[in-house]
Design brief:
The protein has helices spanning 2-11, 42-56, 74-88, 105-116. The protein has a domain at 2-14 and 45-116: ACP-like (Non-ribosomal Peptide Synthetase Peptidyl Carrier Protein, Chain A). The chain is an all-alpha fold. Helix 2 (42-56) crosses helix 4 (105-116).
Length: 126
């Protein structure tokens, strides 16, 4: 696991994308969707916005890319991964370690929804 996390940390170097490049295809209404077409629960998105706002010491919106904003480094990214695993009781596989799964609260919520297989609400935790 340590080798996988080290590889993920190395992968998280800032990357500049051309303006307007959609790394994740949104649903018809602009929502990030799970593989099953389920948008993340609004309470889950808000819960993650609040958590990420605390860890970055910045008031964030659901679509603020804290990596592009320079608020998250590779160590903080690993803390985000560990928080999601611990809070929602699942394991993040090496194939899941795609920066696009974690770059905003809404994307992280869509990822949690995909991993849990249902629409997770904001109250789900261990």
């Amino acid at each position: 696991m340590a080798d996988e996390l080290g590889a993920f940390a190395a992968y998280l170097q800032p990357v500049a994308f051309p303006t307007g490049y959609p790394a994740v295809i949104p649903g018809e209404d602009g929502q990030q969707m799970s593989d099953e077409g389920i948008p993340p629960h609004p309470e889950l998105v808000e819960r993650l916005v609040q958590h990420f706002s605390v860890v970055t010491a910045t008031r964030l919106g659901p679509d603020d890319d804290y990596f592009v904003m320079g608020l998250v480094n590779s160590l903080r990214a690993l803390e985000i991964v560990a928080y999601l695993e611990r809070t929602f009781d699942f394991e993040i596989d090496i194939d899941d370690l795609d920066l696009d799964n974690f770059r905003t609260a809404r994307r992280a919520a869509a990822f949690v929804t995909r991993k849990c297989g249902t629409a997770v609400d904001g109250g789900t935790s261990r």
